[in-house]
TrEMBL record:
This is Endonuclease III. It is an enzyme of class 4 (lyase). The gene is nth. [4Fe-4S] cluster binds at residues 194, 201, 204, 210. The keyword Ribosomal protein does not apply. DNA repair enzyme that has both DNA N-glycosylase activity and AP-lyase activity. The DNA N-glycosylase activity releases various damaged pyrimidines from DNA by cleaving the N-glycosidic bond, leaving an AP (apurinic/apyrimidinic) site. The AP-lyase activity cleaves the phosphodiester bond 3' to the AP site by a beta-elimination, leaving a 3'-terminal unsaturated sugar and a product with a terminal 5'-phosphate. Its EC number is 4.2.99.18. GO terms for molecular function: 4 iron, 4 sulfur cluster binding; class I DNA-(apurinic or apyrimidinic site) endonuclease activity; DNA binding; DNA N-glycosylase activity; metal ion binding. Keywords: 4Fe-4S, DNA damage, DNA repair, DNA-binding, Endonuclease, Glycosidase, Hydrolase, Iron, Iron-sulfur, Lyase, Metal-binding, Nuclease. CDD domains: ENDO3c (cd00056). It comes from the Bacteria. Binds 1 [4Fe-4S] cluster. Residues 45-192 form the HhH-GPD domain. Belongs to the Nth/MutY family.
Amino acid sequence: MEPNRLMMRDCKINRILCILEQTYPEAHCELNFRNPFELLVATILSAQTTDQKVNKVTAVLFERCPTPKKMLEITPREFEEIIRPIGLFRTKAKNILQTCELLIEEHHGDVPSNLDDLVKMPGVGRKTAGVVLANAYGIPALPVDTHVLRVANRLGLSREKDPSKVEKELTALIPMELWIDTHHRLIFHGRRLCHARKPECPVCPLKDCCPVFTSAS
DNA sequence: ATCCCGAGGG
DNA sequence: CCCTCTGGAT
């Protein structure tokens, strides 16, 4: 128990951020988009799937419906068929089409650049809103998804299980100019090494800072 | 079988 | 906190 405390004191947040930067210097959003509207739609679609599958579907969708107005011109049924391969297609179709209506009625067809308005869109929670703010507008955000949550818990950066509480703790801990990159790096790390089931601790660059590894060995 | 870069609802 | 929505990959 003493060794753990010392270990954690040695490897504070700066060390973790530094290793993350060296390990995943190019971490970035892997969704394909050309403007805030496309990113908003792609991000709503990305729940419970991979970016690669979303990109396949949006390549077709954005070609046919590049604006909220165009998206409402095809039938909901046609819309569902286009996005069907990614799953959860009925819920997502309904949310996206309602979001398009809201964008037109209350935002002149533009995607709002603040969290409060974004979260009012159906199908848009903190995570989706954060991704849009960060990647479409360059506004500092550190949205917490399942990867970020899991990795932050394991590294001892937060003990909370509620994503919004974890977000608060992380943003308090990390300099604002690093929020966006850190979000992407934690996700890459969660996907590459820090898997939900079987984390690859022996080859993890963060193992010396991580309570999971140091307490297991 | 079980898991995906979630959100909304009970 | 738990459940459901969905299909596809593994």
